[in-house]
Amino acid sequence: MEVPTMDEPAHFALFGNPVSQSLSPAMHTAAFARMGISADYTACQVKDAAEVVRRIRKGGIRGASVTIPFKETLLPLLDEWDPAAAAIGAVNTIVNRDGRLAGHNTDGPGLIRDLLEWITIKGTTFVVLGAGGAARAAVYSLREAGGIPIVVNRTAERARAFAESFDCRWEPAAELGRLRADCLINTTPVGMFPEVERTPVAERFLTQFPRVMDMIYNPMKTRLLREAESAGCAVRSGVGMFVHQGAEQIRLWTGEEPPREEMRRVVLERLGNHD
Ligand code: NAP
Q1: Pocket test for ligand 1, best of 72, 106, 187 (most atoms within 8 A of CB)
Q2: Residue 67 neighbours by CB distance under 10 Å
C-alpha cells in the first residue's frame, strides 16, 4: 500500500460494539504522529458486520481494526483474507487495497512476538484457557511456531470441536487440576475490568504452571497474575500482545515499521489512568 504523506491525510478506523473503552485510538494516533504520517483513526460503534464494510467503502477508509463482536462475522463479507485469518476464522484487521477489502488477523503474530520476548515457544507446552476467537488465534500461531497447546474450556463440547479443527489436545475444565504445562495462557475475559476480583483458575493449581500469561490488559495485574506471582510463577500481562497486534496492523496498512516503544508508552500511560 502507498504510504500516506503529510499532504494527503488518510482515514483509519476501529469498528466494534462497544468501542468507547478501547485504547487503540490513542495508541494508533500516537504511532502515526511519530511516523510523520498524516492520518486520523476513529472509533466507530456499529450495529453489524455489513455496516463495517459499508462504512469502509463510503468513508474511503484505508485500514481498519475490528473488535468484539465482529471478528468472525466480518470475514465472509470481505473480498479476500490471508491463510492465517481463514484458519483462525476471524479477522481483526482490514486493508482497503483500492476498493478490495483484505482481512488479516494480527492477534496471533502479536502474541508470538510478545511471547518470544519472554520464552522459547518451540517444544514448549501451553495450557490455553478458553475456546473463543483469541484462543483460536493463539492455538493456530503457537502450533505454527512449534509450541504444544492443550485447550481447556468451560464448555467441554466447544473445546472438543475446537481441538478437532486444530488437531491438538483438549481437556475439560474439571481436569485442570491434574494438568502440567510450561505456560498457562488465559484467553477468557474472566478478571477483566470491572470484574477484577474474578479469576479463571483456582489458586491451588497455579504451581503446576511455571509461567502464566493473561491476555487481559485492563487491569494489567489481574487477580490471576497476582495469585500466580504469589505462587512463584513468572507472569506476563496482555499489554505486550496488544501493542504488537496493533503494530502489526500499522505494518499491514503502511508497509512501515511502527514505533512499538512509543505505542507501549501510550498504552501504559492510559492504563495507569484507568486503574
Ligand atoms: P470470546 O470469543 O467471547 O471467547 C471467550 C471464551 O472465554 C470462551 O471460550 C468462553 O467459554 C470463555 N469464558 C467466558 N466467560 C467465562 C467464564 N465466566 N468462565 C470460564 N470461561 C469463560 O472472546 P475472545 O474474543 O476470545 O476474547 C477473550 C479475551 O481475550 C478478552 O478478554 C479480550 O480482551 C482478550 N484479548 C486480548 C488481546 C490482546 O491483544 N491482549 C487480543 C485479543 C483478545 P465458553 O466456550 O464456555 O463460553
Answers
A1: 187
A2: 17
Closest CA to 15 of 5, 26, 50, 3: 50
Is the distance from CB of 156 to CB of 164 less than 8 angstroms?
no
Query: pTM of the full predicted structure?
Result: 0.96
Which residues are catalytic, by number?
71
Q: Give the integer Cα–Cα distance in Å for 31 and 15.
A: 19
Q: pLDDT per residue over 96-119, tens digit each?
A: 999 999 999 999 999 999 999 999
- What residues does 211 pair with on adjacent strands? 183, 234
Contact 14, 65 (CB under 8 A): yes
pLDDT tens per residue, range 4-17: 554 578 999 999 99
Residue 245 Cβ < 6 Å to ligand 1: yes
Residue nearest to atom 4 of ligand 1 (CA): 132
Is 68 buried (19+), middle (13-18) or exposed (0-12) by CB count in 10 A?
middle
Grid coordinates given for 164: 478437532
125-129/148-153 β-pairing = parallel
β-strand partners of 125? 148
- Mention every residue, 6+ apart, whose C-beta is less than 8 A from residue 2: none
Task: Report how far ligand 1's centroid is from the alpha carbon of 2 (Å).
Answer: 35
Nearest to 112 by CA among 75, 149, 57, 151: 149
Is the distance from CB of 233 to CB of 212 less than 8 angstroms? Answer: yes
Query: Nearest-5° angle of CA 244, CA 121, CA 124?
Result: 140
Say if ligand 1 is within 6 A of residue 246 CB: no
240 lines ligand 1 (CB under 6 A): no
Which of 146, 109, 111 minimizes the C-alpha distance to 130?
Answer: 111
Mutate to test the pocket of ligand 1, among 19, 154, 264 (most ligand atoms within 8 A of CB): 154
